[in-house]
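Notes to self after the Tuesday call (sharing in case useful).
The group wants a holo model before anyone commits to mutagenesis around the pocket. I volunteered. Ligand is flavin mononucleotide. Logging inputs and output together so the record is complete.
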Amino acid sequence: MAPSPLLTPFTLADDLKLKNRMVLSPMTRGRTGDMQRPDKMTAQYYVQRASAGLIITEGTLISTVANGWVGAPEIYSKGATLAWKEVTDAVHAAGGLIFCQLWHCGRASHSSFHAKEGKAVAPSAIAINEPTIHAPIGKVPHEVPAPMTVDQIKETVADFERAAANAKAAGFDGVEIHGANGYLIDSFLQTKTNKRTDEYGGESLENRFRFLKEVTEAVLKVWPASRVGVRLSPNGVYNDQGSPDFREAFPWFVEQLDKYKLAYIHFIIGLGFGFHKLGEPMVMADFRKSTSSALMANCGYTKESGEKEITDGNSDLISYGRPWITNPDLPARFETGAKLANDPPVGVWYSPGPKGYVDYPNADGTIV
Ligand SMILES: Cc1cc2nc3c(=O)[nH]c(=O)nc-3n(C[C@H](O)[C@H](O)[C@H](O)COP(=O)(O)O)c2cc1C
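Result:
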């Protein structure tokens, strides 16, 4: 019998050879404490999942003002860079490949995350229209973010570059720019959150894309294009996101990204994390038309729907999130047909400590 297409190798931009097409989707696990540094338990978690063709880390903060998640790790300090090196060394020793997801939370933050800098920053002064955010001081109402000055935009681009350089020093195989889920980059892309009247905003697609363009070009100063991916969420409502022109805007953004010949473009395309319902949801085939880049599809995929997406030619790679949490040996289970463990309870997604993190066994009962 032919092997599952998910279990066949794939090469990113003629460079990095992945042993299979099953990617560990970036997932914040909230376990790096006040120090915001990965530790031995983080390394164990990723090593347990090193049979993925590619691991993408949890969102990793590029600066202090980027922080908007309790217990999320950073990669702006020397200490965190050294701590990540222990994780990448362990993953490589286990035969895995690992990209670092570079994250700026933008308006999905609160001043109590960064007392020195004060308010969260965003393209425009529009608060997330949801009841509360989980901040270091507890559950609090969302604040109206401070609209970024052009100087702040330039500094943030430089922060992405420094974080990308730190990721290189930390031994990562590449980086993923987090342009999804209503965080800073996505909020520049979308009219819902970008009401600027300068060259970074307004209705103009070119202006809305400018920030991601500058971030991508800054990251490409330190990494070859074959080691840089970008994540987008055209259908997503997460963090109060969604813009009426999404069907026109996202293919245009992707056409621009295509020019860089990146490692991949990663889409949260499935609707399992909520859909803004502003039109017919986009599908992977919509993007295949406008790009020659490798594509990675995510959200709600099963073995069968992932195989179909690849066989139909709509995607090259499938990233899985929740299934990896409870099935650290996911490719082996797909290969042997071993029963999958249920998705994890939401209560363990972000709870500190090993429970619900490094205590899920392989199909044979062993814990690595
Ligand atoms: C616990 C948890 C944390 C997540 N953290 C991130 C993150 O840091 N960065 C990101 O881009 N997406 C994040 N996501 C979204 C996942 O990468 C993925 O898009 C989502 O789980 C849907 O895929 P799935 O249906 O295979 O789980 C997170 C999802 C979960 C469940």
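Two things stood out.
The mean pLDDT is 97.
The chain has ten helices and 14 strands.
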